[in-house]
Write a structure and sequence with these properties.
Blueprint: E1 2-7, E2 10-13, E3 18-26, E4 31-39, E5 46-52, E6 57-59, E7 67-71, E8 77-82, E9 91-101, E10 104-109, E11 113-118
Parallel strand pairs: 2-11
Antiparallel strand pairs: 1-3, 3-8, 4-5, 4-9, 5-6, 7-8, 9-10, 9-11
Length: 119
């Protein structure tokens, strides 16, 4: 089992910046991928960015060039630095972890943190 605790959401004006953090605990040695998804009202949850234990990074096209995903050296905290925020970035942001044990993979989600960008 992996437990996730997020922090860093809030209200920011368009053009501003926010940094989200997500700390994992529990079976962290099994973590392979960490990252962030978001869900805006009336929309499906969508990928924002992910980073693997090997350092491979994937960004959604909508955020490329504006966000940076990173992990700490211990591999149990993932960050999302968001710059040049737009009103359309308003959503609940969810921390995501995929762990692997043997041939099985397990997905875990944080409780979500609200990001609101005012125009």
């Amino acid at each position: 089992q992996v437990q996730l605790v997020e922090s860093g959401g809030g209200l920011v004006q368009a053009g501003g910046s926010l940094r989200l953090s997500c700390a994992a605990s529990g079976s962290i040695v099994s973590i392979r991928t960490m990252g962030w998804y978001r869900q805006a009202p009336g929309k499906q949850r969508e990928l924002v960015a992910t980073i693997t234990s090997g350092g491979s990074i994937n960004y959604a096209d909508s955020v490329k060039g504006r966000v940076i995903v990173s992990r700490d050296n211990a591999g149990n905290t993932v960050y999302l630095q968001m710059n040049s925020l737009k009103p359309e970035d308003t959503a609940v942001y969810y921390c995501y972890v995929r762990s692997r044990r043997g041939v099985w993979e397990y997905d875990y989600w944080g409780q979500g943190t609200q990001v609101t960008v005012s125009s």
